[in-house]
Amino acid sequence: MAATRTFSIIKPDATRRNLTGAVTKMLEDAGLRVVASKRIQMSREQAEGFYDVHRERPFFGELVDFMISGPVVVQVLEGENAVKANRDVMGATNPADADEGTIRKTYAESIEANSVHGSDSEENAANEIKFFFNDDELVG
Ligand code: CMP
């Protein structure tokens, strides 16, 4: 099967606890390869734009506040069936529902401070990658 790509964010709760390497190791152990990575401080406008689909949700304001509360690491991951492989190793959105051995079960603090974001479809992955990376930043 051909390799595909997905998009990942290591969230402020994880960067704050110095877990960038630990989370990335779990992604790599799940068969994913980091083909682009940068640590950034998101602006409010960027966070609002990235999560635009959630704008009407009651948690939107808190979600944006949290995502700009510290640095994040945005990454492009490549592997077989990358979207699903990433979602499987991330675990459920709410860590209380996440399976043993997943990133969120291991590290997440709450449904908001849940350590990682991952694209939920190949179409969204392509859009989310474009939101943060130029083509010349994807070096394979
Ligand atoms: P993420 O995959 O980044 O996409 C949207 C985020 O909203 C989600 O992870 C959660 O961290 C966050 N969130 C905060 N509160 C809720 C909630 N009640 N239901 C779903 N997502 C929530």
Automatic annotation (TrEMBL):
GO terms for molecular function: ATP binding; metal ion binding; nucleoside diphosphate kinase activity. InterPro entries: NDK-like_dom, NDK-like_dom_sf, Nucleoside_diP_kinase, Nucleoside_diP_kinase_AS. It catalyses: a ribonucleoside 5'-diphosphate + ATP = a ribonucleoside 5'-triphosphate + ADP; a 2'-deoxyribonucleoside 5'-diphosphate + ATP = a 2'-deoxyribonucleoside 5'-triphosphate + ADP. PANTHER family: NUCLEOSIDE DIPHOSPHATE KINASE, NUCLEOSIDE DIPHOSPHATE KINASE DDB_G0292928-RELATED. Gene3D superfamilies: Nucleoside diphosphate kinase-like domain (3.30.70.141). It is found in: Cytoplasm. Pfam families: NDK. Residues 3-140 form the Nucleoside diphosphate kinase-like domain. GO terms for biological process: CTP biosynthetic process; GTP biosynthetic process; UTP biosynthetic process. Its cofactor is Mg(2+). It is an enzyme of class 2 (transferase). GO terms for cellular component: cytoplasm. Major role in the synthesis of nucleoside triphosphates other than ATP. The ATP gamma phosphate is transferred to the NDP beta phosphate via a ping-pong mechanism, using a phosphorylated active-site intermediate. Keywords: ATP-binding, Cytoplasm, Kinase, Magnesium, Metal-binding, Nucleotide metabolism, Nucleotide-binding, Phosphoprotein, Transferase. The active site is at 117 (pros-phosphohistidine intermediate). Belongs to the NDK family. This is Nucleoside diphosphate kinase. Its EC number is 2.7.4.6. SMART domains: NDK.
